[in-house]
Amino acid sequence: MSVITENGISVAEMINLLSSLPKGAEYPYINASTRTVVTIEEIIPPYGPITIRRWDPTKGEIKKDAEPQSISMAMMNRVANAITSGTPINIDRLLGASYNTRSALETLLCHTPPFYYSYPGRIELIHGKTKIKSGHKHVIYLPETPHEKGILCEKKLEHLEINEIPSKNVVYNALELPAHTSISGKVDTDESRIHSQMQMAIYEIGCSFYLKTFIAQNDTGIRYKGKMLSEHENIVTKLSIIPTIGAFDGAADAGKLIDAIWLGDKSIPAVFEVEQSTGVTSGLTRMSNFKKTLPEYRGMRYIIVAPDEYREKVTREINKPEFSHLHAFYLPYSAVSELLGLCQERKLKGITDAFIETFLDDVYANS
């Protein structure tokens, strides 16, 4: 019953936290418009269940008339298995209509020191456009920065969004774009954020494949998870130091503005251009110029990453005669999110880079 995920929490640990809350105390719900309060009557260690009472004083209800209700072991086990430190979870979405005491459990957890409530942004597909909207209520487990016991604390999650396009939630971790960057001149807009989120998703997926990732030179001003890109493991900042590239005249210079490049010990598994708002042609041109400086490496893939609604446009550009030598693939945003979700949920490790071909759309007409 006591399941611990990597950097997560077990049911027994949840029970210990909840047992530290004074029994009989009245705990308000997170949503201020909900006047209901909840109190703990009994907790049976080590795995529960928990008996609670809840009532709405503004409706004239009183504690002694409230029916005892149970937070089951099954519910707590389901929540514990979903928790990873630093990753927001939507309790309502996780449990759905299966448990009518889910809001009570959410409320009680957030009164314990390591749990906060938060409203991360959410990425939606609206009328064929990807947009960042205001988010729904989530719970986030932050054991390294506990708050005072017995109170509710909101954690402001700037620069972190939840992707609601695919069937599973995918977390794009905190990144910060410079308001003004002398190299790139980018500003922090929805489009530039989504572009950078795709780059970071490619990096995270690459880590699961044991690959290093080069991120375009003009994106070096990005801060990701509180650190500059250059401070992250498996990030390459200079192509000239990579033997498979630096050994060839003009290759490092031709590739320096490419959005992302996966790098193996003796291979270049994939070259990515992310097309959020710019034309697909410019990305294909950069990849074409890069390819011309290199020998034919086995298993090297050229990939255009773009919104799902861009499929027709990407297909048309990839099939232009001047780009036929690339045999480029299309990787829609939804596929990036699906693959990133697998890496986050299943902790994929040690799979080969060929696994990405499962998610690629081969739109090249002569394939």
Please give a structural write-up:
This protein is of the alpha+beta class and 367 residues long. The protein folds into two domains: 11-157, no CATH class; 172-358, Trna Endonuclease, Chain: A, domain 1. 26% of the residues lie in helices and 20% in strands. The chain contains ten helices and 19 strands. The protein starts with 10 loop residues before the first helix and ends in a 21-residue tail after the last helix.
Compact overview of the structure:
This protein has helices spanning 11-19, 73-82, 91-95, 102-110, 190-208, 243-246, 251-255, 280-292, 311-318, 333-346; strands spanning 27-28, 37-43, 50-55, 69-71, 115-118, 121-126, 129-133, 138-141, 161-163, 170-172, 175-176, 212-215, 223-224, 227-228, 235-236, 260-263, 270-274, 301-306, 329-332.
* CATH C-level name of the largest domain: Alpha Beta
Give the spatial strand order of the biggest sheet.
Answer: 15-12-16-17-18-19
Q: What is the number of beta strands?
A: 19
Which shape, going by the Cα principal axes?
A: elongated
CATH architectural grouping of the largest domain: 3-Layer(aba) Sandwich
Structural class: alpha+beta
* Arithmetic mean pLDDT: 84
What integer value in Å does the Rg equal? 24 Å
Number of helices: 10
Helices and strands, in order, run as HEEEEHHHEEEEEEEHEEEEHHEEHEHEH
Please summarize the sheet with the most strands.
6 strands, mixed
The amount of helix comes to 25-40%
Which ranges are low-confidence, i.e. pLDDT below 50, for 5 or more consecutive residues?
1-6, 179-188
> Into how many domains do the coordinates divide?
2
Q: Determine the CATH topology of the largest domain.
A: Trna Endonuclease, Chain: A, domain 1
